[in-house]
TrEMBL record:
<feature type="domain" description="Metallo-beta-lactamase">
    <location>
        <begin position="23"/>
        <end position="219"/>
    </location>
</feature>
<dbReference type="InterPro" id="IPR001279">
    <property type="entry name" value="Metallo-B-lactamas"/>
</dbReference>
<dbReference type="Pfam" id="PF00753">
    <property type="entry name" value="Lactamase_B"/>
</dbReference>
<dbReference type="InterPro" id="IPR036866">
    <property type="entry name" value="RibonucZ/Hydroxyglut_hydro"/>
</dbReference>
<protein>
    <submittedName>
        <fullName>Metallo-beta-lactamase superfamily protein</fullName>
    </submittedName>
</protein>
<dbReference type="InterPro" id="IPR050855">
    <property type="entry name" value="NDM-1-like"/>
</dbReference>
Length: 234
């Protein structure tokens, strides 16, 4: 897997265009002091592909791993990133600890879907992502924040919350004029979604800024500022 250069020191590993795969894009903010990895990949195998791509592109190894939120497709690769500091919003700690306590296996996935059929799409994607459970662990953040946090490389984390996940965080790279959105403006996950739930366009509009040139959502193509404004009717 090769990274795509987006702007200045921001690189992207594209997600899977098949929505059934639930495999998001992963961003890397390259820095000789240690890169910032934004989301972990949806599985250890995905994370290993990204690590190989970083090495092939001769990009600096990650020192920090930022969770944009706690959903599985953004965090399940974390156990394949040894030595990084995992940073996330404090609201993600409790759900990740609960996830960490589950006896993850293909059998457990099948049992959970029998108990709650609405979990089917998510859990089928998890089963496809995981070919081997040996050494797998769900890892909560080792460093948390409440409102805003700046990492030593100048990358800024801002909590925005929203309907998709209470811990949703956007990641601003000011010198590259890039805002990494995670899933913050998306509707809630399918198994939690009501018929009236839709994209949070108000939240998306609130993030528009003349100081940002690129907006990157985890499951969509990056948009330039003029494209984002046009899409939002702003």
């Amino acid at each position: 897997m090769e990274p795509r250069h987006l702007a200045d020191r921001v690189w992207l590993f594209p997600g899977d265009p098949d929505p059934g795969a639930i495999r998001p894009a992963v961003a890397v903010v390259a820095d000789e002091r240690g890169s910032v990895l934004v989301d972990a990949g949806h599985s250890p195998a995905h994370a290993r592909e990204i690590r190989a791509g970083l090495a092939a592109a001769r990009l600096p190894e990650p020192r920090w791993l930022v969770y944009t939120h706690h959903h599985w497709d953004h965090v399940w690769g974390a156990c394949a990133w040894p030595g990084v500091e995992i940073v996330g919003h404090e609201a993600g700690v409790a759900p990740l600890r609960a996830e960490a306590a589950r006896p993850w296996s293909h059998r457990h996935l099948r049992e959970r879907v029998r108990e709650e059929p609405r979990l089917g799409p998510s859990y089928r994607a998890r089963a496809l992502a995981m070919d081997d459970w040996e050494g797998f662990a769900v890892l909560p953040p080792t460093r948390t924040f409440t409102d805003e946090l700046m990492l030593p490389t100048g990358v800024v984390l801002r909590h925005v919350g929203g309907g998709h996940a209470p811990d949703s965080t956007v990641v601003l790279v000011p010198d590259s004029r890039v805002l990494l959105l995670g899933d913050c403006w998306y509707p809630p996950p399918l198994h939690e979604r009501s018929p009236t739930d839709g994209p949070d366009l108000e939240l998306a509009r609130s993030l528009l800024s003349d100081h940002v040139e690129w907006y990157v959502s985890a499951h969509d193509e990056p948009l330039r500022r003029d494209q984002a404004r046009a899409a939002l009717g702003d």
